[in-house]
Amino acid sequence: MKTTHSISWQKLGAACLFTIILGASSCKDSFLDVDPQGQQVATEFWKTEADATKAVNAIYANLRSWENVAFPALVIESTPSDEADKGSTPTDATFFNLFDQFTVGSTEGSLQSFWTGQYRNINFCNQVLDNIPGITMNEGLKSRYLGEAKFVRAYSYFRLVRAYGGVPLRLHIPKDNSEYNLPRATRQEVYAQIEKDLTEAAAILPASYPATDVGRATKGAALGLLAKVSMYQQKWTEVQNYTNQVMGLGYNLFPDFEKLFRVENENSVESVFEIQAEFVAGNNAANNSQYSQVQGVAGVPAGGWGFNTPSASLINSFEPGDPRRDATILFPGERTPQGDLIPTTVPNIGYNQKSYVPFSRFVSGNQGAEQNIRVLRFAEILLMNAEAANELGNTTQALTSLNRVRARARGTATGVLPDVTTTDKAALRAAIWRERQSELALESDRYFDVVRQGRAAEVFGPKGWKANKNEVWPIPQQEIDLSGSLLTQNPGY
Predict the structure, then answer these.
(1) Is residue 333 part of a domain?
(2) How far, in Å, CA of 347 to CA of 90, rounded?
(3) Does 354 fall in a domain?
(4) Is residue 291 in a domain?
(5) What DSSP state is assigned to residue 353?
(6) Are 333 and 315 in contact (CB under 8 A)?
(7) Which ranges of 234-335 does DSSP label H, i.e. alpha helix?
(8) Dist. CA 371–CA 124, nearest whole Å
(9) CATH number at residue 153
(10) CA-based torsion, 242, 244, 249, 253: positive or negative
(11) Pick from 166, 60, 164: which is nearest to 110 by CA?
(12) Among 21, 58, 158, 254, which is most buried by a count of CB atoms within 10 Å?
């Protein structure tokens, strides 16, 4: 099993970028294909357009790292919710329980790993933003690359601010030792920087790309993330504005909910942003996404590790007959649409079907390495639009967007998931929140969704969640120590 490791973000320098460029940049689509045998001296870098391309591609490659998509991300963003359990066997990776039961302390390694992963992303983005402006190259491409870096930096800061609250705002590569140690910015300051980056990115990025560049950040991705960032701050006018813009960019709902998450339908018409992953024969550094592996069915030949499993609460939360229940959860004894039989002898009550890769596509050493991670889908854009419209008193628009998601979910089934018709604001809000749970289940949104809705004490209280403490996780103690206590701990930890 993979061993997590801790590296202070304060120590991350240019060498990390070259590690990614030279060792892990190959991925789906040619824009991430980089010769793993290539070597380039750091002092000769940042000279050409080709260097700029390698540096930006490295940003995307790092997004599928262990810290970004596997254990550290799951224990911070998914397993603590009411929709997921630790999974596997009771004695395996018991540190998951510290997060699931809200007893985690500041020295737990996954807190540090998640922090490190996000600041590594930010470091790569800052290197691009600091160095590419000085390269003589196509000005349009230069501008676009800067927009892509700003998008990913904003995405990483959004993950940090949800998890820890205010964090240090590192916006440039330090020029000397005096610039390494930064205090925590306020939550509001972090959100303001995220909004600035995304606004500037949205103004630059194209609405779409040719096939060779599919998977890069787009205008829709920047506007969609802006909407989500605004939703977390209850800026409902902005949420409605940004989602309306995304709704005019040509996205649509993929017709089959279950097939939406299969490898062959990655980057579909519903995809607003996905982390790209691929199996590249002979390049183990590129086959490093363990998103599917750690959540895969346990106890089958070449199977997964069986973590972050659906809870009984999630299983029971779907409306009667909702096809998304069986499309979201792999149950023991069932046969998947792709023909795989899930044994009745597996140790858990179910597994995440959204991360499922058919057994026939398993690759040696890393099951499901080719599975993209869906970060933002058009269905969520519609649900954010519905929530904003309801909060602003536009019931008709709220119902239209909400019922569009429900119509896709029921597909050809009859007598299930009827259109919501209530015009009561509170009842409609509850219906939208329930729809988010059913539509986005096991996509690492439920935990922070409930917190931002103000319902965490009610929903997570039985698991040990406490108000005025568990809204955020503890700042990693290693970061506090390295800062000479300049960084302060969150209350209650």
Answers:
(1) no
(2) 10
(3) no
(4) no
(5) G
(6) no
(7) 236-247, 257-260, 291-295, 312-317, 323-328
(8) 23
(9) 1.25.40.390
(10) positive
(11) 164
(12) 58
Question: What's the domain range around 141?
Answer: 9-84+96-278+374-482
Q: Hey, what amino acid is at 453?
A: Q
**From the first residue on, what is the mean pLDDT of each consecutive set of 10 residues in the chain (493 residues)?**
33 40 39 48 86 97 97 98 97 97 98 98 98 98 98 98 98 90 97 98 98 96 98 98 98 98 97 93 84 94 91 98 98 96 96 95 84 98 99 98 98 95 98 98 98 98 97 98 97 97
Contact by Cβ (8 Å): 230, 194: no
Residue 177: the pLDDT is 85
Say which amino acid occupies 330.
L
Domain-located, residue 173: yes
Burial 69-82 (b: 16+ CB within 10 A, else e): bbbbbbbbbbbbbb
| Whether pTM exceeds 0.90 | yes
CB 69 within 8 A of CB 289: yes
The total domain count for the chain is: 1
- Distance (Å) of CA 189 to CA 12, 169, 242, 454, 456: 23, 8, 21, 22, 24
Of 116, 117, 189, 202, the closest CA to residue 151 belongs to 202
- 20-45 core/surface letters (b: 16 or more CB in 10 A; e: else): bbbbbbbbbbebbbbebeeeeeeeeb
